[in-house]
Structure of Rieske domain-containing protein:
Amino acid sequence: MAPVSLPLLSRARPPLLLRDAGVKLSTVRLPPPWRQQWKHTSGERRRRLSMPASAVAAETPPPHARAEEEEEAAPAVGGGEEGRFEWLDQWYPVAPVCDLDPRKPHGKMVMGLRVVAWFDGGGGGEWRVVDDACPHRLAPLSEGRVDGKGRLQCAYHGWCFDGHGSCQFIPQAPALGPPVHKNSKACVASYPSVVQNNILWFYPRSEPEYKEILQRKRPPYFPDLDDPSFNTVFGVRDLFYGYDVLVENLMDPAHVPYAHKGLMPIQNKEDPGRYCSTVHLLSTVESDQEGGYPVKIRTEQAKIDGFLSVQEDDVCYMKFDAPCTLYGKPFRTKEPQVSAP
C-alpha cells in the first residue's frame, strides 16, 4: 500500500489578528509561507519563489521583471498553471479524531489562524472548528470547556456558543431583559468542517458563501484509510518550523541514505553492489557505506496545485496535492515470494 502523509499545520505561521483589526478575511490575501508559481517556457519549467518583504523593499526590480510580476498578479479563479494558488480556499487537516478528546476544546494554529476544535454535543454530535477568540474580551476559547449542554463555554466570563458560532447564553445578561446574546457582535466566526478518513478537516473561510462549500469541494479522500484491512498509523509531532519545509523534505528521496543512515536498506537496481550501511542485516555484502546513487525521476504532471513524479520503471512514484497532501511509493521494496500449492 502507498504511504500517505498529511502534515498537520499547527505551527505554520505566527498568529494574524485580522478580526481584531476590523479587517474582513475575504479582503485580505495572506502571503503563504511557501508560494510556488509554475511557468512553462520553451518546454522547461521554472520555479519562482516569493521574496521577503524586506528584500523587496531593498531591491527595485528591473522594468521587464516588474512587467512579469504584474502579469502574474492578474486575477485568476480556481488556480491553474498560469494562475495564482489560493491558500485560503483549501481544506486543511486539523488532527486525527483519535487524538481529540470530545470532552474539551483543542486549540490549533493553521495557516496563521488560531482556531479551536471541539465536539458539539448539543448540535447533532459533530466536530466543529471556530475562531479561538471569544468576541467579548478575546479570551482563547481553547482555554474554556464544553459545558453540560454541549456548548463551547468561555473560561473568562462564561459566554456559551453553539457549533455555528452563535452565542447561546450570557450569564451576566438579565434573564428578563433583551436577548443581547443574539446580537451579531456576540457571535464567533465558525468554519466549515468535516471528518473524513478519521481526520478532522476545516476550510478557513467563515463568509456565508462558503457555508455549503462541502457540497462543491471536499478534502482529499484516501480509500485505503477507510479499508479495515489497511494498516493505518496516525502520528502527530510538533516541529519548530513551517510545514512547507517538512513537505519539501518528505518528497526528497535523495536525502534518505545520509540523513537516515543506518535505518533503511536501499538497493541500486543498476548496481546491486551498492547498498546502505545496514543492508548486511539482509545477509548481503556491504560495499558502499553511503548508499547514495542517481535516482531517475521523470515529471508526469506539474501545475499550480501539485505534481506527479515517477521513477524506476513506474514502480515508485510521488504525488503532491497542494497545499499539504503527499502520497506515493518513494522506494522500491523487495516483494515477497509466494509459492502456489
Observations:
- The chain has five helices and 18 strands.
- The chain has a mean pLDDT of 74.
- Residues 50 and 56 are 9 Å apart (CA to CA).
